[in-house]
Amino acid sequence: MFGSVTIEIAIGLIVIFILVSTICAVIREGIESILKTRAAYLEQGIRELLGSVTAKNLYEHPLIFGLFKGDYTESSGVRGKNMPSYIPSKNFARAIMDIAAKGADTDVRGEVSSTQKLTYSIRQNISNLKNPKIERVLLNALDMAQDDIDKTQANLENWYNSAMDRVSGWYKRSTQWIILIISLVVTIGLNIDSIKIMKYLSNDENARKLILEKAEKLDKNAQTEQSALSYEQAQKAMEELKLPIGWDKPSNYWSKSTDDTSTDWRRVMNSILGWLITAAAAMLGTPYWFDVLNKVMVIRSTVKPHEKSPEEGSQDR
Description:
It is a single chain. By secondary structure, the protein is mostly helical. The chain folds into 2 domains: 4-33 and 178-308, no CATH class; 35-170, no CATH class. The protein has 13 helices and no strands. It has helices spanning 4-35, 37-50, 52-59, 62-65, 89-102, 115-125, 132-144, 149-190, 194-203, 205-223, 231-240, 265-283, 286-308. The chain is elongated. The protein starts with a helix and ends in a 9-residue tail after the last helix. The relative contact order is 0.15.
């Protein structure tokens, strides 16, 4: 069974992973606020779904146009400009049906007094969509709903949501790559070597006590739904832990001693491995490590009493 020292070292590493993950997540959100990649992926997904012409008509429809500022322009690359990062499925479905029934010209004011007239108008004017594939999807939605407009809308919403699941997959994969790059830059830039930190904690009881206090505070905050940390809080917490983080003398970081300044390649490889461990851990995200911290703290609470009161030997002779 693991001893309390081993568990304390593990808790120390988890705390570091939480802080690094927080810093990386804040940087990622900062990049997202500038590039608006969510909006770019959404717009590209809708263009693939509807075609360029229908997508343009959709974005310029009042039900969608009100979700963003400025005029619609096709996104290029991963920059979303002023496009919305989210379009509700209800708005999408209603806009598609309205374009089919009344055309893309928003100056046209058509009145439909009943759902029967609306479905009739959609069937008669469905070529307004200017996309045979989308026209067939809408006709199929009408047929499956037996011209019930509410069920037709629900069918279109389901179709849209299924397509957006694929877009979400694109965004998540790209985000993972971005987080990996950010975590590597942060880890190497701040010299957060997991192996070095583990060795330091194994030899310094005071350091373990200090990091346990921070872990207990983080765990308590997580249980009261106050686990969110700002960039400044994470950076300050990392400094307060007084762990071997950072570069004192980068040029001599791997030298063996003052007598022998040749590079020790084993130490170089250990540092690289330590960085990779930290970067890979940061990719898992802050919520994941808060969950792990809670579980390990529970394990520690069961180990400590056992070590303080070891089992007595048998009295049988």
